[in-house]
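WARN no homologs supplied; continuing
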Amino acid sequence: TACEITDCLGGDWSLWIPSWLPSWCPTSENQLKMAEDRMLQCVDGSFSRQYVPISGGNLLWTLTFNTDGVKGKTPVVLLHGFGCGVGLWAHNLCALSQRRPVYALDLLGFGQSSRPLFSTDAQEAEEQFVESIEQWRAKVGLEAMILLGHNLGGYLAASYSLKYPGRVKHIILVEPWGFPERPDTADEDRPIPVWIKALGAMLSPFNPLAGLRLVGPLGPTLVQTLRPDFKRKFSSMFSDNTVSEYIYHLNVQTPSGETAFKNMTIPYGWAKRPMLQRIGLLQPEIPITIIYGSRSSIDGHSGNTIKAMRPSSHVEIIAIRGAGHYVYADQPDDFNRRVLQVCDQMD
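OK structure emitted
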């Protein structure tokens, strides 16, 4: 799942750290803000940044592009994946806003958005995410949207569209999480080793990224060591550790959305409420585009399943050559071009 800084480290080990050690994790909300500012310094053109208020005193951090330049075009709303934030769209924001408005928001519980307490019930937590997006839409004043979601954002885009179909003109699912059901039995050709099952059982009570908070001051170095690929993905923009520092500060704040995500999963990262069980209920006139990276380890069969479930609806599957799970950063030019083509079919 997105921003897998640790695959299965993750209740939350960091909560065991005494409260009298405030400097254990070298981070703060201001450091996260500065890290995001550095991520966006290479984004050309003017754009606005604001906190959009929703219910419960919560705020959703939002970037807005090209709202005045193009009239009559359905805006694209970008929903990031697990452990990510608006800064990771740095390769895409300018290109996608060439011909229509683009909004990118930090999901509730992630990034610079508010980090409230979520329900421990998977369905209720999912509804909290969905309602926050709907309240955000109403506050911003959008009549309808093209929803583009990566990873967890794809799952939430589908869930939102099921509840508020009149607000969605097109769904673009980018390497979506949470669609297939967990297999009843392991693949006979690829059985899960006993030690992995034992480790998974031992760590299952913990949040996915708790290990990052547990190591405290070593966290930034851990991100650089475990995920050197992120530096490569953005090497055309940054030659230093800007990206890994942003990812670090994103994921060592209060683990609000992270805990919600944990409560929406069952062991080995499968969704408690698989979206394929419900996506067939989506109104048939809403088109779906699924984008995968050709080198991704994510199961791409869900796209074919959706296509079979919606024979009378528009379902398009796009594979981006040379891209992995972070397709929008691995092959940004190809990704941006294909997304623009999809959007131009709309209006």
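The radius of gyration is 19 Å.
OK
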